[in-house]
Predict the structure.
Amino acid sequence: MKSGVRQVVAVALAGAATGQGLSAGTCHWGSCSGPDIGGGWCGQSRGNCEGCGGGKWCSSTPPAPTPPPPVGPPPAGLTAYCPSAADFVIDYGGNNVTLEDQGWTVKGKGRAGTAAAYNMLGGTVEFDIDVSGTQRGVNANIYTISPTIAGSKYHISDYCDGSLPDDGTVPWCPEIDWIESNGNCGGATTLHTKKQKGGNDGCTSWGCRTQYQYNGKASFHVKITYGTDGTWTTIRDGQVIDGGTMNPHPDGNSWASLKHYYESKGAVVISSEWIGWVPVDACGGNAGESELAASHFSVKNLRIEGSIVQGPTPKVCATQFVEETSVMI
Protein backbone atom coordinates (compact mmCIF):
# COMPACT_ATOMS: atom_id res chain seq x y z
CA MET A 1 0.00 0.00 0.00
CA LYS A 2 1.42 3.41 -0.93
CA SER A 3 2.19 5.79 1.91
CA GLY A 4 -0.27 8.42 0.62
CA VAL A 5 -3.08 5.85 0.53
CA ARG A 6 -2.15 4.63 4.02
CA GLN A 7 -2.39 8.24 5.23
CA VAL A 8 -5.88 8.75 3.81
CA VAL A 9 -7.08 5.41 5.24
CA ALA A 10 -5.64 6.34 8.61
CA VAL A 11 -7.43 9.68 8.50
CA ALA A 12 -10.71 7.98 7.59
CA LEU A 13 -10.37 5.45 10.41
CA ALA A 14 -9.49 8.19 12.88
CA GLY A 15 -12.45 10.20 11.62
CA ALA A 16 -14.79 7.24 12.08
CA ALA A 17 -13.60 6.89 15.65
CA THR A 18 -14.15 10.58 16.41
CA GLY A 19 -17.24 11.20 14.27
CA GLN A 20 -15.16 13.34 11.91
CA GLY A 21 -15.00 11.29 8.73
CA LEU A 22 -14.52 12.39 5.17
CA SER A 23 -17.71 14.46 5.09
CA ALA A 24 -18.43 16.68 2.10
CA GLY A 25 -16.95 20.09 2.68
CA THR A 26 -13.91 22.36 2.37
CA CYS A 27 -11.33 23.69 4.79
CA HIS A 28 -10.85 27.45 5.16
CA TRP A 29 -8.52 29.61 7.21
CA GLY A 30 -10.25 31.25 10.16
CA SER A 31 -13.86 31.14 8.96
CA CYS A 32 -16.01 29.93 6.07
CA SER A 33 -15.51 33.33 4.41
CA GLY A 34 -11.72 32.94 4.65
CA PRO A 35 -9.38 31.53 2.00
CA ASP A 36 -9.86 27.90 0.92
CA ILE A 37 -6.90 25.91 2.24
CA GLY A 38 -7.09 23.61 -0.79
CA GLY A 39 -6.73 19.88 -1.37
CA GLY A 40 -3.68 19.05 0.78
CA TRP A 41 -3.70 17.00 3.96
CA CYS A 42 -5.56 19.75 5.88
CA GLY A 43 -8.40 19.69 3.35
CA GLN A 44 -8.99 15.94 3.44
CA SER A 45 -11.33 15.81 6.45
CA ARG A 46 -12.87 17.81 9.27
CA GLY A 47 -10.41 16.28 11.75
CA ASN A 48 -7.40 17.22 9.66
CA CYS A 49 -8.76 20.72 9.00
CA GLU A 50 -9.41 21.52 12.65
CA GLY A 51 -5.98 20.15 13.56
CA CYS A 52 -4.19 22.49 11.17
CA GLY A 53 -4.22 25.49 13.47
CA GLY A 54 -6.87 28.03 12.49
CA GLY A 55 -8.69 25.72 10.07
CA LYS A 56 -12.48 25.91 9.83
CA TRP A 57 -14.41 23.02 8.20
CA CYS A 58 -17.33 24.29 6.10
CA SER A 59 -19.93 21.80 4.96
CA SER A 60 -20.88 21.89 1.29
CA THR A 61 -24.43 20.91 2.25
CA PRO A 62 -26.49 24.05 2.97
CA PRO A 63 -28.25 24.09 6.34
CA ALA A 64 -31.96 23.44 6.42
CA PRO A 65 -33.99 26.66 6.45
CA THR A 66 -35.11 27.88 9.85
CA PRO A 67 -38.86 27.32 10.16
CA PRO A 68 -40.89 30.50 10.75
CA PRO A 69 -41.98 31.09 14.34
CA PRO A 70 -45.49 29.89 15.15
CA VAL A 71 -48.18 32.54 14.87
CA GLY A 72 -50.23 32.79 18.02
CA PRO A 73 -53.70 34.26 18.51
CA PRO A 74 -54.06 38.07 18.47
CA PRO A 75 -54.41 39.96 21.78
CA ALA A 76 -57.87 40.10 23.32
CA GLY A 77 -60.17 42.51 21.49
CA LEU A 78 -58.14 42.46 18.27
CA THR A 79 -58.64 40.47 15.09
CA ALA A 80 -55.96 38.92 12.88
CA TYR A 81 -56.55 39.97 9.26
CA CYS A 82 -54.98 38.28 6.22
CA PRO A 83 -56.24 40.57 3.43
CA SER A 84 -57.17 39.00 0.10
CA ALA A 85 -56.37 40.60 -3.25
CA ALA A 86 -59.87 42.10 -3.19
CA ASP A 87 -59.01 43.93 0.05
CA PHE A 88 -56.32 46.03 -1.70
CA VAL A 89 -56.55 48.90 -4.18
CA ILE A 90 -54.26 50.28 -6.89
CA ASP A 91 -53.57 53.99 -6.51
CA TYR A 92 -51.70 54.33 -9.79
CA GLY A 93 -49.60 52.24 -12.12
CA GLY A 94 -52.35 50.05 -13.58
CA ASN A 95 -50.76 46.92 -15.00
CA ASN A 96 -47.51 47.68 -13.16
CA VAL A 97 -49.20 46.57 -9.92
CA THR A 98 -50.34 42.99 -9.31
CA LEU A 99 -52.55 42.48 -6.26
CA GLU A 100 -52.36 39.09 -4.57
CA ASP A 101 -53.74 37.49 -1.43
CA GLN A 102 -51.76 38.99 1.47
CA GLY A 103 -49.56 41.13 -0.75
CA TRP A 104 -48.64 42.63 -4.11
CA THR A 105 -45.89 43.02 -6.69
CA VAL A 106 -44.93 46.37 -8.22
CA LYS A 107 -42.94 46.55 -11.46
CA GLY A 108 -41.89 50.05 -12.43
CA LYS A 109 -43.87 53.08 -11.24
CA GLY A 110 -46.89 52.10 -9.17
CA ARG A 111 -48.61 52.22 -5.80
CA ALA A 112 -50.91 49.86 -3.91
CA GLY A 113 -52.78 50.22 -0.65
CA THR A 114 -55.29 48.62 1.69
CA ALA A 115 -58.96 49.41 1.16
CA ALA A 116 -59.47 49.70 4.93
CA ALA A 117 -57.84 51.72 7.70
CA TYR A 118 -56.74 49.70 10.75
CA ASN A 119 -56.17 50.60 14.38
CA MET A 120 -53.04 48.54 15.05
CA LEU A 121 -52.44 49.71 18.63
CA GLY A 122 -51.68 46.75 20.88
CA GLY A 123 -51.22 44.44 17.88
CA THR A 124 -48.58 43.39 15.40
CA VAL A 125 -48.02 43.53 11.65
CA GLU A 126 -45.89 40.99 9.79
CA PHE A 127 -44.84 40.62 6.16
CA ASP A 128 -42.03 39.47 3.88
CA ILE A 129 -40.51 42.00 1.49
CA ASP A 130 -38.15 41.34 -1.42
CA VAL A 131 -36.35 44.33 -2.97
CA SER A 132 -33.59 42.31 -4.63
CA GLY A 133 -34.96 43.32 -8.05
CA THR A 134 -34.95 47.04 -7.26
CA GLN A 135 -32.11 49.12 -8.67
CA ARG A 136 -30.14 51.59 -6.58
CA GLY A 137 -31.68 55.03 -6.55
CA VAL A 138 -35.24 53.66 -6.77
CA ASN A 139 -37.44 54.04 -3.68
CA ALA A 140 -39.42 50.84 -2.90
CA ASN A 141 -41.39 51.12 0.31
CA ILE A 142 -44.20 50.13 2.66
CA TYR A 143 -45.71 52.59 5.16
CA THR A 144 -48.93 53.79 6.78
CA ILE A 145 -50.92 56.99 6.47
CA SER A 146 -54.02 58.12 8.36
CA PRO A 147 -56.42 59.74 5.88
CA THR A 148 -60.08 60.62 6.03
CA ILE A 149 -61.80 58.07 3.77
CA ALA A 150 -64.62 59.85 1.94
CA GLY A 151 -66.28 56.79 0.37
CA SER A 152 -66.80 53.16 1.23
CA LYS A 153 -63.09 52.37 0.94
CA TYR A 154 -59.74 54.13 0.57
CA HIS A 155 -59.22 55.90 -2.76
CA ILE A 156 -56.24 57.81 -4.14
CA SER A 157 -58.22 61.04 -3.70
CA ASP A 158 -58.03 60.42 0.07
CA TYR A 159 -54.21 60.24 0.05
CA CYS A 160 -52.15 62.24 2.54
CA ASP A 161 -48.66 61.89 4.03
CA GLY A 162 -46.06 63.61 6.20
CA SER A 163 -43.98 65.21 3.44
CA LEU A 164 -45.53 68.71 3.30
CA PRO A 165 -44.49 69.43 -0.32
CA ASP A 166 -43.82 73.06 -1.23
CA ASP A 167 -46.68 73.12 -3.77
CA GLY A 168 -49.19 72.07 -1.11
CA THR A 169 -50.70 69.38 -3.32
CA VAL A 170 -50.58 66.62 -0.68
CA PRO A 171 -52.55 67.09 2.56
CA TRP A 172 -50.67 66.36 5.78
CA CYS A 173 -51.25 63.37 8.02
CA PRO A 174 -48.89 61.17 10.07
CA GLU A 175 -46.71 58.90 7.96
CA ILE A 176 -45.05 55.82 9.45
CA ASP A 177 -42.39 54.47 7.08
CA TRP A 178 -41.83 50.85 8.06
CA ILE A 179 -39.28 50.58 5.25
CA GLU A 180 -38.14 52.97 2.52
CA SER A 181 -35.53 51.21 0.41
CA ASN A 182 -32.73 52.63 -1.71
CA GLY A 183 -32.85 49.89 -4.32
CA ASN A 184 -31.46 46.60 -3.05
CA CYS A 185 -28.67 48.31 -1.09
CA GLY A 186 -30.13 49.79 2.10
CA GLY A 187 -33.15 51.35 3.71
CA ALA A 188 -34.64 53.51 6.44
CA THR A 189 -37.42 53.30 9.01
CA THR A 190 -38.91 56.72 9.74
CA LEU A 191 -41.59 58.40 11.84
CA HIS A 192 -43.35 61.61 10.65
CA THR A 193 -45.85 62.80 13.27
CA LYS A 194 -45.24 66.57 13.52
CA LYS A 195 -46.85 68.92 11.01
CA GLN A 196 -43.76 70.98 10.32
CA LYS A 197 -41.64 71.51 7.22
CA GLY A 198 -38.11 70.40 8.08
CA GLY A 199 -36.20 70.80 11.32
CA ASN A 200 -34.82 68.36 13.86
CA ASP A 201 -37.06 69.47 16.74
CA GLY A 202 -39.31 66.44 16.52
CA CYS A 203 -40.54 63.97 13.90
CA THR A 204 -41.15 66.62 11.23
CA SER A 205 -41.26 66.18 7.46
CA TRP A 206 -37.57 65.24 7.77
CA GLY A 207 -38.57 62.51 10.19
CA CYS A 208 -37.13 60.61 13.13
CA ARG A 209 -35.09 58.02 11.22
CA THR A 210 -32.95 54.90 11.46
CA GLN A 211 -30.88 53.95 8.39
CA TYR A 212 -29.18 50.65 7.60
CA GLN A 213 -27.57 48.71 4.76
CA TYR A 214 -28.71 45.26 3.62
CA ASN A 215 -25.20 43.85 3.14
CA GLY A 216 -26.24 41.65 0.24
CA LYS A 217 -29.49 40.31 1.75
CA ALA A 218 -32.33 42.22 0.11
CA SER A 219 -35.28 40.01 1.10
CA PHE A 220 -36.33 39.73 4.71
CA HIS A 221 -39.11 39.23 7.23
CA VAL A 222 -40.45 42.26 9.10
CA LYS A 223 -42.50 42.37 12.29
CA ILE A 224 -43.90 45.61 13.76
CA THR A 225 -45.22 45.54 17.32
CA TYR A 226 -47.39 48.45 18.51
CA GLY A 227 -47.92 49.45 22.11
CA THR A 228 -51.30 50.74 23.23
CA ASP A 229 -49.62 54.13 23.84
CA GLY A 230 -48.57 54.54 20.19
CA THR A 231 -44.97 53.41 20.59
CA TRP A 232 -43.76 50.74 18.19
CA THR A 233 -40.82 48.47 17.50
CA THR A 234 -39.80 47.15 14.09
CA ILE A 235 -37.77 43.95 13.83
CA ARG A 236 -36.15 43.43 10.42
CA ASP A 237 -34.62 39.96 10.28
CA GLY A 238 -33.50 40.35 13.89
CA GLN A 239 -32.47 44.03 13.70
CA VAL A 240 -34.46 45.92 16.35
CA ILE A 241 -35.54 49.45 15.40
CA ASP A 242 -37.37 51.67 17.90
CA GLY A 243 -37.39 55.18 19.29
CA GLY A 244 -34.00 54.66 20.92
CA THR A 245 -32.32 53.98 17.56
CA MET A 246 -33.92 56.91 15.71
CA ASN A 247 -32.42 60.34 15.14
CA PRO A 248 -33.81 62.51 16.57
CA HIS A 249 -35.45 60.39 19.26
CA PRO A 250 -39.27 60.60 19.19
CA ASP A 251 -40.73 62.31 22.25
CA GLY A 252 -44.02 61.76 24.05
CA ASN A 253 -45.84 64.06 21.63
CA SER A 254 -44.71 61.91 18.70
CA TRP A 255 -46.22 58.75 20.16
CA ALA A 256 -49.34 60.60 21.32
CA SER A 257 -49.93 61.89 17.78
CA LEU A 258 -49.62 58.40 16.32
CA LYS A 259 -52.01 57.03 18.98
CA HIS A 260 -54.58 59.75 18.29
CA TYR A 261 -54.62 59.23 14.53
CA TYR A 262 -54.58 55.43 14.67
CA GLU A 263 -57.60 55.53 17.01
CA SER A 264 -59.55 58.22 15.17
CA LYS A 265 -58.61 57.60 11.51
CA GLY A 266 -56.84 54.26 11.49
CA ALA A 267 -53.86 53.36 9.31
CA VAL A 268 -54.00 52.62 5.59
CA VAL A 269 -51.02 50.52 4.46
CA ILE A 270 -49.43 52.06 1.35
CA SER A 271 -46.63 50.61 -0.80
CA SER A 272 -45.03 52.13 -3.88
CA GLU A 273 -42.03 52.27 -6.19
CA TRP A 274 -40.90 55.70 -7.38
CA ILE A 275 -37.94 58.03 -7.96
CA GLY A 276 -37.24 61.45 -6.48
CA TRP A 277 -35.72 60.74 -3.06
CA VAL A 278 -33.92 57.80 -1.47
CA PRO A 279 -32.33 57.25 1.96
CA VAL A 280 -28.82 55.93 2.72
CA ASP A 281 -26.39 58.21 0.87
CA ALA A 282 -23.80 55.42 0.76
CA CYS A 283 -26.08 53.53 -1.65
CA GLY A 284 -26.12 56.36 -4.18
CA GLY A 285 -28.52 59.09 -5.26
CA ASN A 286 -31.68 59.16 -7.33
CA ALA A 287 -32.05 56.86 -10.32
CA GLY A 288 -33.72 57.72 -13.63
CA GLU A 289 -36.85 56.58 -15.41
CA SER A 290 -35.09 53.65 -17.09
CA GLU A 291 -33.89 52.26 -13.76
CA LEU A 292 -37.38 52.67 -12.31
CA ALA A 293 -38.94 50.83 -15.26
CA ALA A 294 -36.47 47.97 -14.82
CA SER A 295 -37.12 47.60 -11.07
CA HIS A 296 -39.60 45.47 -9.18
CA PHE A 297 -40.33 44.42 -5.59
CA SER A 298 -42.91 42.39 -3.72
CA VAL A 299 -44.66 42.21 -0.36
CA LYS A 300 -46.09 38.86 0.72
CA ASN A 301 -47.67 37.15 3.76
CA LEU A 302 -49.10 40.40 5.13
CA ARG A 303 -50.86 39.82 8.45
CA ILE A 304 -52.37 42.66 10.50
CA GLU A 305 -53.67 42.47 14.06
CA GLY A 306 -56.06 45.25 14.95
CA SER A 307 -59.55 46.59 14.38
CA ILE A 308 -61.17 48.39 11.46
CA VAL A 309 -61.70 52.14 11.84
CA GLN A 310 -62.72 53.05 8.28
CA GLY A 311 -63.49 51.06 5.14
CA PRO A 312 -64.59 47.48 4.47
CA THR A 313 -63.77 44.53 6.69
CA PRO A 314 -60.97 42.46 5.10
CA LYS A 315 -60.50 38.70 5.16
CA VAL A 316 -59.87 37.28 8.62
CA CYS A 317 -56.96 34.86 9.05
CA ALA A 318 -57.89 31.22 9.35
CA THR A 319 -57.82 30.12 12.99
CA GLN A 320 -55.02 27.70 13.73
CA PHE A 321 -55.00 25.48 16.77
CA VAL A 322 -51.92 23.64 17.97
CA GLU A 323 -52.71 20.71 20.25
CA GLU A 324 -50.22 19.10 22.59
CA THR A 325 -50.10 15.33 22.43
CA SER A 326 -48.32 12.81 24.63
CA VAL A 327 -46.49 9.95 22.98
CA MET A 328 -45.61 6.93 25.07
CA ILE A 329 -42.64 4.88 23.93
User: Anything to note?
Assistant: The domain at 79-310 is CATH 2.70.100.10 (1,4-Beta-D-Glucan Cellobiohydrolase I; Chain A). The mean pLDDT is 86. The two ends are 49 Å apart (CA to CA).
